[in-house]
Amino acid sequence: MRQISLDTETTGRDPDKGDRLVEIGCVALDGRHRPDEGNADCFYHTLVNPEREVPEEVVKIHGLTTERLSTEPRFAEVADAFLDFVRGSELIIHNAEFDVGFIDMELARIGRPPIETVCKITDTLPLARKMRPGQRNSLDALCDAYGIDRSSRTLHGALLDAWLLAEVYLKLTQGQGSLMIETSSGEGGETLLALPDPSLLRVIRATPDEIAAHEEQLDKIDKACKGTCVWRKNPDAEPENMPGSS
Question: What is the DSSP letter of 171?
Fold first, then answer.
């Protein structure tokens, strides 16, 4: 399934109170890789005339004024192109409830069904919270945590934020990607998974105190089972009391 990161900008936070979309940005991932910036087929971006004023406090966030947006197309005029771009894909959205709420509102206004009828929605916010419990998981915080350059993000922008989200998503799910990239095919068309480079693995050895505590625990197990626990047996020795053993 094609994966597309998506972000929107709006006139406010509540579509049920009259707030509207002002910008949509989408970035289609190239498999498990970031897309080529020169490939126009990987991007969708449009400004949208919200048909209402943009509050000044919101303009400070994304820089899109009422005057600037007054000459842009209305959502009804861009809906078909947007839906054609995302149809059948998995939409990667950070805090999806917010963006999907606005998209569904705009679709409902022109008599179209919710976006979930044409796309699968994946929310990266709960994914980030699961991987980074108790930490800040805003898009800015995740970019900083994963070393993603966000220096050009002086204002929020749907296309720029969708691009950053694509980078964040690849980092959040890199464990999945590491099993799929750099593969080769064996006989019979089987896919051989690449092994990680052992030099990249970090070895953490037990301290003397930890070894002593471990031995103390093994002594207790030996006493409880009135014998030698399995961790102290020679791994090359013949198994005891097993069928076929002497």
Answer: H
